[in-house]
Every structure is written in C-alpha cells, then in structure tokens.
Amino acid sequence: MKNAFEKFFETVKKAVSWLREKKWRSIGAALVLFFIICLFFFFGQRPGNKVIVDISPGMSTDSVAMALQKNGVISSELYFRALARFEGLDEKIRAGRYIFYEGMTANEAIKILENGPQLGQVRVTIPEGYTVRQIADILAAKGVVSKADFLEAAKTYAPYDYMKTDNKDVKYSVEGFLFPDTYEFMTNSSPQAVMKVMVEQFNRELTPALRERAKEEHLSIRELVILASLVEAEAKYESDRPIIAQVFFNRLRINMPLQSDTTIQYILPKRKENLSINDTKIASPYNTYIHYGLPPGAVDNPGLASIKAVLYPEANDYLYFVADSEGHNHYSRTYSEHLEVLKQIQ
Q: Which residue(s) pair with 52 in the sheet?
C-alpha cells in the first residue's frame, strides 16, 4: 500500500505532466501546483479504518505524534509536531482514549485532540481521609481498575524516595500519598498508572515551603504523612486539626502512647461504630494503644489541611481529647479531667 507521500508525489508528477501538455507559462504552473499541494494536505487523504489511541497523563506532543504515526493515523510525524506546536497543542491535550481514523490529516487529528477524549474517561473524586482499600472500592466501581490488582500493587508502589521504607510492617507503601482530589481516569487502567497520577499530585501539593517547614520541625515526609493521616481521621472540624496535631506531639514528647482509635479502625476488617477494650488489645504494629511512637505507616490519605495542621500545630498542653456525638472534640490536660469530660458527653 502506498503511503501518503508516495501518493502526494504521484499527484504532483501528474500535475506537472498535465501542465506541460497544456504548455502553461511558469508562473501559472507554479500557482496551479501550489494549489494542488494545498488541496492534497487539507483534502487529499481520506480516512480509513477506525483507530483507538490512548493518551497517557503527561504524554508529550512528540510522543503523541509517534503514537499516531505508528498507528497509521498520520503520515508525517514531523509535520504533525510542527503544526501541533503552532496550534499550542501542549496546552490543550488531555489524557484519555481517542478515536482516530487511518490516513487522517495532521489538522484533523489535532482537532480531535483539542476536543478531548471520546472513550473510557471517567471522573473520580477521592475524599480526604479515605484509605487505600476505600479508594480501591471507588476505582473498581467506576471500572478504572481491578480492586485486587490495585491492592496488590499498593503494597510496594513507591516511586519517590520519601515513600520508601525498610519497615516490613507497612501494609501499603502508597498509603498516605494518594492525594485526595478529583481526577479523570481511563477505564481499564493499570493500578500503577492511576497511582502515578495521584502520588504526583501529592508531590506537587507538598511545596518546597512545606518541605522546608517539615525539616524545621525535624519531621521526615513519611512521619509528616503518618501524623497527618491520624489528624485527618480524628478531626471532623477544621478548627480541631491543629489542636489534635499538638496533642499527638505532646504525647510523643513524653513517650506516651498515642492511643488513637483510628489506628485500631485501620486494622479491623470492617469499621466499628464503637471500639471495645478487646479491640485496643489487638496484636498489630499499627495498634497505638500497645505500641509507643508512630504506627509503621499512614492509616489513610490526608488532605492538605491536615498536613498543614501537623506542620503548624496550635500550641497547647493537652494530652487527651474525645469527640462528642456531633464530632466536636473536648480536650483535657489530665486523665481525671478526661474522665469528667467523658461523663459529661455520654
């Protein structure tokens, strides 16, 4: 099968022969030839078979051009790249699944890309404080990934150095780094492709200023995320976040167990409305009732507000807090005060 350029040169050759037969002058011949070339580039190619092409997040225009030429959509990668730059396609292209046709012009292909993906694109909102398992449920329900595959990949996925750990007790390496936001994913994506988008968003949200603040507070990014995940789970209201963060720091400073119920909920197969005494005795590295210090990993995926609360806690000398039926936290300095508060809110 002849490619587009072979067809083009054949067209030009025929045009030149025809002009010679008619004995046109050189200026007239040049004008007609130019007109034929224009007609070829804009109308000469006729679309053939349907071609589906996936454009991944962050894919460059050059990579798109290669994919389109490889699939027979366009005939000239070089011409497409030049036209795409002229049209500012880099600023317009979105990830997704597109329908093209074999033998399209570069201009036609660019118009399709500018209009956005036509297939397999779903919008997914990940709420703040959702765990890896909850996120897997959302993604699977939307047809983005297989839940089992996502959970398996989440155990070891750690593309950034600050996500890596030698602690064998960590349940999911990616827990805490899947930034809560609204995303657009392709259906039937690989777990790694989806997680890549979310951890890259986390990496962007954690600005140089926030990283510098973490250093000032002598916190690694992993420690920051673990603490933020606890704050996220314990605080229903914005004003409670920096207070709770300081309570955790106060306990850590005097080597007092964090005793965070959210770490117990994390290790239970199903969340409970009320925890029992036996629940707080479960043998798990994540159980902060029986283990001192931070749990081995985050217990959910915190939002930016909880991260900032850990970096900028509200100074206090509280060691205890408990939430009432409406989710408002009440704080105490001593255990006896804490018991009195419990009586009042029950």
A: 99
Residues 100, 109: contact at Cβ < 8 Å? Answer: yes
Q: How many Å apart are CA 80 and CA 75, to the nearest integer?
A: 9
Q: Are strands 329-332 and 121-125 parallel, antiparallel or unpaired?
A: unpaired
Q: What is the pLDDT of residue 50?
A: 86
Secondary structure (DSSP) of 104-156: --HHHHHHHHHH---BSEEEEE--TT--HHHHHHHHHHTTSS-HHHHHHHHTT
Alpha-carbon gap, residue 275 to 145, rounded angstroms? 32
Q: Which residues of 257-282 are buried (b: 16+ CB within 10 A; e: fewer)?
A: ebebbbbbbbbeeeeeeeeeeebeee
Cα distance between residue 277 and residue 280, in whole Å: 5
Distance of alpha carbon 17 from alpha carbon 117, whole angstroms: 44
Q: How far apart are CA 38 and CA 105, in angstroms?
A: 12
Six-digit token pair at 320? 């205890």
Q: Please tell me the predicted confidence (pLDDT) of residue 157.
A: 97
Any idea what DSSP says for residue 335?
Answer: H
Question: What pLDDT shows up at residue 47?
Answer: 54
For tokens 């392709």, name the residue. Answer: 186
Distance separating alpha carbons of residues 33 and 199, to the nearest angstrom: 54
> Which tokens hold the place of 164?
């890596």
